[in-house]
Design brief:
By secondary structure, the protein is an alpha+beta fold. Helix 3 crosses helix 8. It is globular and about 65 Å long.
């Protein structure tokens, strides 16, 4: 079945429900060296010393503790999280607010703990205050960074919009609760390649035009440089450790999935030309930022695949030897996620196909 381009919608929802094990709103003393020193993260975070702030979906924090319990310090009224201990999900936190969430009853010894932000909440800033050990325990040095890094750039399809839904018909609340970037094709592909990753995805945004022509004057590129999406002019400060060997760009669904409306400054032809020009410029920005050794993979699907392929060919003709085109194969996808987005099954299939394609590329990890 061809991708139903006319049914892509934008997510926006919040909730105040909390699920999982015990949640206790208690203050936790920050590590005297700062939170960043006690956790591993590859996401775009703003370091505030005793707190790390962030906005993008899929941001994760990994730590190690010794003892029988661990507390997760959060201040987030909008996003949902999974808490994983020793590789198993032990709690899902739904819009936890300001809290220290405790996972108790662990066996004595050393444990790994991972917190991951499930959904995209670009209107809000999330804050993580670190992991704390239960009395008698200790926070240990964090896990080491993985040897590979992948950056994913995209929209709701990359964010995992409604991928856990049992129905295509969803309210905003249902979209928020059933979106999980950590089981999307981006995170799955990264795990299969043993890579750290960023999921810099923003639902409803396009390269030059947003879904159904919304928010004119803004597009994905307006926000790409930010760590905090709701802070105009914010610029993420790369600590120098983020040097991806691969950047995957999957943008274009929102540019072309709906007809141009009366009053929009486009014709079909001028929109396509503007898209190609902006796409080429965006790839050049990535090339300047990450250097000649990074592989740039441009994803094409549906009505915009030809435009992406044309852009890639133009850059290759100009001498860029590490830019590639991947035509997304949607054969067998059921699009059972909210509003005809990819289901969790679809994301697994796409991760299989993308991983297989990447295996044939000479990526400099």
């Amino acid at each position: 079945m061809p991708l139903p381009w006319t049914r892509m919608l934008v997510a926006s929802a919040t909730s105040t429900l909390l699920l999982g094990t015990s949640a206790v709103a208690t203050a936790a003393a920050p590590d005297e060296k700062g939170v960043a020193a006690s956790v591993h993260t590859a996401g775009r975070v703003q370091d505030g010393g005793d707190v790390l702030r962030y906005s993008w979906p899929g941001v994760y924090f990994e730590g190690r503790i010794r003892g029988t319990g661990v507390g997760i310090v959060l201040d987030d009224p909008a996003a949902d999280y999974d808490v994983q201990v020793d590789g198993a999900t032990v709690a899902t936190l739904v819009t936890p607010g300001r809290t220290t969430h405790w996972v108790d009853g662990l066996r004595k010894g050393v444990h790994t703990v991972r917190l991951v932000k499930r959904n995209d909440t670009p209107w809000s800033t999330s804050a993580f205050g670190g992991f704390v050990a239960a009395p008698g325990g200790a926070v240990l040095a964090p896990p080491t960074a993985r040897g590979r890094q992948i950056e994913f750039v995209g929209d709701s399809l990359t964010a995992g919009y409604g991928n856990l839904s049992a129905s295509r018909d969803c309210t905003g609340e249902q979209v928020a609760r059933t979106t999980n970037a950590d089981v999307g094709y981006a995170a799955l592909t990264a795990r299969r390649l043993r890579a750290d990753h960023q999921i810099n995805a923003y639902s409803g945004r396009g390269m030059v035009r947003n879904y159904n022509g919304g928010s004119p004057g803004e597009n994905y590129r307006t926000f790409y440089d930010r760590a905090l999406l709701n802070v105009p002019g914010d610029v993420w400060q790369n600590p120098g450790t983020w040097r991806p060997g691969l950047v995957v760009v999957h943008l274009g669904t929102n540019d072309f999935s709906t007809p141009v409306n009366p009053g929009e400054p486009w014709t079909d032809e001028s929109l396509a030309a503007a898209y190609r020009s902006a796409y080429s410029g965006f790839l050049q920005k990535l090339r300047t930022r990450y250097g000649p050794g990074t592989t740039l993979l441009a994803v094409g699907a549906g009505p915009f695949a030809g435009h992406v392929e044309q852009v890639v060919q133009g850059r290759a003709d100009a001498g860029d030897r590490r830019v590639r085109f991947w035509k997304l194969d949607d054969t067998g996808l059921d699009h059972m996620g909210c509003h005809w987005h990819y289901s969790a099954r679809d994301h697994r299939l796409l991760a299989d196909r993308l991983t297989s394609f990447l295996a044939g590329l000479p990526i400099r990890w």
